Automatic annotation (TrEMBL):
Principal location class: membrane
NCBIfam families: PRK03818.1, YidE_YbjL_dupl
Family per record: Belongs to the AAE transporter (TC 2.A.81) family.
Transmembrane segment boundaries: 16-35, 42-61, 73-92, 104-123, 169-193, 384-404, 416-439, 446-464, 476-497, 542-561
Entry keywords, A to Z: Cell membrane, Membrane, Transmembrane, Transmembrane helix, Transport
Subcellular location(s) of the protein: Cell membrane
Cited Gene3D superfamilies: Regulator of K+ conductance, C-terminal domain
Keyword flag Protease: no
Organism: Chryseobacterium gotjawalense
Domain RCK C-terminal: 289-374
Stated name of the protein: Transporter
Superkingdom of origin organism: Bacteria
Pfam families found in the cross-reference section: Asp-Al_Ex, TrkA_C
Membrane topology, record value: Multi-pass membrane protein
Length: 562
């Protein structure tokens, strides 16, 4: 009576499309459930989907090969693209601060793993293709495995008599070790170093405040006779730093105006300033003294409002081109983009989703809102044309063959690095044509988590298939021992050097560890375990360069030692 249900839910050797979908749903559903359970203070989050997939694969659940490849690759594309959009605005600026240091540490970890693999090649007598598979699994790097397989295929085409082993076997045996190894290193190092995530977060915020100072507003009363009769333009030019004067009230009146740059200053005038705190303090000390005047904050004459950029015709236009003050008697005092406050400059280019804080008359604000768009509803609606246009560009970039002289095989960035690099560039420059970087926060988190769940389910079920048989046939314990050297030696050195020599915040270090091993499972775990999104930022900062180096190292080892 219930044969149809058994056929649907129980594993089969040759799965149908429906059975493949059921296997994916079972892996994701059970994984998310177990990921929410606490083991002490530890929760695995969506990374548990990987392990439930392994168990289901071991007990016979299968996914059709075409569906498996699609689910794995599409999930990875969604995940890395979401990460790129989330951290893009801060990615490039980070190289002025800590990004270069993070990438040096991460790439050194990649090169050390390659050196250990070469050492094992000479010590163990294993074929290099098996060791490259072990290396790729030990560092959970699928693009490196793909590059190795492509290299082997190209060499086989040129030399048909040459026989190679399958690096996928070593990859499948050591992949769980790679995932658990990074997670175990994060847990053990946190315990041994007595890390308090709350304290690390406070240190991170303090360092960020020191690097990225917020904009503030202050009031000044003009008392320095040197500036009496001078225009605002002359005064700011002499001061030499960027500040915005949003309001002015002449002495003896209660009339508040948004001043033009040719307005002259008089004794005891009161100004409302916007800028960096140190700049404002220095300006106040130069022209007068702090003011406690309350009339200048009144909204009777001029209003303050936030306006969202949603009109496609306005995107990539500069504030100077809009000329809002001369046209509408309205002044922009701040621009909010990707959680950051930006001081408005005439040369500032507007991106889709920017929030402008403006002051002016009610009529002027209403007119500008019509021009700029100001449709919050539009920002909540997903723009699939922009999203899938960006994903397409990422796939194209990842598929471009990079020909390197003296190498017989072109190298590709793949579906991991291509979409990530495109997302970083789009979010940095605001978009390309109709493709823009804005996606509301909830949609970004959904895209990342949904993508990584698909990826984990496909990889887990595939790795679980025949895992035990391969483990016995190829002396799995010995291969795991080799994998341990590749997994743990670079990680341990990274923790020691990163924490004690480079003085890197542990929340950031966890992201570097996950990014160096291109391991979404470890990243997902660390964000849950440390209750912080900081690891995501450093993960994305090192991921593109690390992926490129992983691809090069895997290919070069095959070419030089096969």
């Amino acid at each position: 009576m219930f044969d149809w249900l058994k056929l649907l839910l129980l594993p089969g050797e040759i799965p149908t499309v429906t059975q493949s979908i059921v296997a994916i749903m079972l892996a994701i559903g059970t994984g998310v459930f177990f990921g929410r359970l606490k083991l002490g203070k530890i929760t695995f989050g969506v990374s548990a989907v990987m392990f439930t997939g392994l168990i289901l694969g071991h007990f016979g659940y299968r996914i059709q090969p075409g569906i498996l490849d699609f689910i794995r690759d599409f999930g990875l594309i969604l995940f890395v693209y979401g990460i790129g959009l989330q951290v893009g605005p801060s990615f490039f600026s980070s190289f002025k601060n800590e990004g270069l240091k993070f990438n040096i540490l991460a790439v050194s970890c990649v090169l050390l793993g390659g050196i250990i693999t070469v050492g094992l090649f000479y010590l163990t007598g294993l074929k290099i293709e098996d060791l490259v598979g072990i290396m790729s699994g030990s560092v959970t790097n699928t693009p490196g495995l793909g590059a190795a397989k492509n290299t082997i295929e190209e060499i086989t085409n040129s030399f048909p008599d040459k026989k190679f082993g399958d690096p996928t076997i070593g990859y499948a045996i050591t992949y769980p070790l790679g995932v658990f190894g990074i997670i175990a290193t994060i847990i053990i190092s946190k315990l041994l170093l007595k890390i308090n995530p709350d304290e690390e977060m406070k240190k991170f915020r303090k360092s960020k405040i020191n690097r990225e100072l917020p904009l503030v507003h202050k009031k000044v009363r003009i008392t320095n006779p040197y500036y009496f009769g001078k225009t605002l333009h002359q005064t700011i030019k002499e001061f030499g730093r960027e500040i915005v004067i949003s309001r002015l009230k002449h002495s003896g009146t209660i009339v508040v105006q948004s001043p033009t740059m040719d307005v002259q200053l008089h004794d005891r005038d009161v100004l409302m300033l916007v800028g960096l705190e140190k700049d404002l303090d220095d300006f106040i000390a130069t022209v007068g003294r702090p003011s406690s005047d309350l009339f200048i904050e009144s909204d009777k004459q001029i209003l303050k409002k936030n306006i969202f950029v949603t009109n496609p015709k306005i995107i990539h236009k500069k504030l100077s081109e809009l000329d809002l003050y001369n046209t509408f008697d309205l002044k922009v005092t701040r621009v909010f983009r990707a959680g950051k406050e930006i001081l408005p400059r005439p040369s500032l280019e507007l991106f889709y989703g920017d929030k402008l804080r403006v002051i002016g008359s009610k009529e002027g604000i209403e007119e500008v809102a019509k021009i700029i768009g100001n449709s919050e509803k539009k920002l909540l609606e997903p723009d699939f044309l922009s999203l899938f246009g960006g994903l397409l560009l990422g796939v194209i970039l990842g598929s471009i063959p990079i020909v390197i002289p003296s190498l017989p095989v072109p190298i590709k960035l793949g579906f991991a690095a291509g979409p990530l690099i495109v997302a970083l560039l789009i979010s940095r420059y605001g978009g390309i044509a109709f493709i823009h970087s804005y996606i509301n926060t909830g949609a970004t988190y959904f895209m990342k988590d949904f993508g990584i769940c698909l990826f984990f389910a496909a990889v887990g079920i595939h790795a679980g298939d025949g895992f035990y048989d391969n483990f016995i046939q190829y002396h799995g314990w010995l291969w795991l021992l080799y994998g341990c050297a590749i997994t743990f030696i670079p990680l341990i050195l990274m923790v020691i050097i990163g924490r004690f020599i480079m003085k890197i915040n542990f929340l950031q270090l966890a992201g570097i560890m996950s990014g160096s091993y291109t391991d979404p499972a470890a990243l997902s775990f660390s964000t849950n375990y440390l209750d912080s999104d900081i690891p995501i930022q450093t993960y994305a900062q090192v991921y593109p360069l690390v992926t490129i180096f992983r691809i090069f190292v895997a290919s070069l080892l095959i070419l030089f030692f096969s």
